[in-house]
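Sharing a chain and its predicted structure for anyone who wants a worked example. Both blocks are below, sequence first, tokens second.
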Amino acid sequence: MPVTLLTDTAEALLATAAGSGTQVAIAEVALGDGQGATYNPQHSATALKRELAREPILSRVRTDANSWRIKAEFDTDTPAFAVREMGFFDSAGNLIAIWAGVDVVPRQTGAIVYIVEHYLNLSRIDGGLVTVAAPDDQLIAFQAVALTGQAQIRLEQFNQAEALRAAGLY
């Protein structure tokens, strides 16, 4: 199963961030072909085996204290290749996390808009040390607000029905 690993570089940057009150900000996603083969990623990685395209992260949504859903798009002019690896980089070009695995099913880029929607689970890291340097995904944020509002209405309806039952009026 493909995995996303934090790199040793990320751990060093996180240790510095924890001591200084700053954050590590993931800003870009890179795609590569793994030099034509799938592989298991290593914590010691500092680059993809063969990076062929890199784009800034377009949007993000924090799904919980230590997880982010990120989105990036690779245009139709991206070279055609089979994606076997992804890297998540900070603005200084440091590889923060790498996604790969021997059982990756390669997906083809080129001639289409290739969309990356990936969940970065950073549960082994203290909350707030990692952020994603991209705007919030407004559609997802709107859906969350709408669902929360609907849940509050349903809860109020339930509470009113319970009060009517308790008063013997229902």
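Comments welcome. The mean pLDDT is 84.
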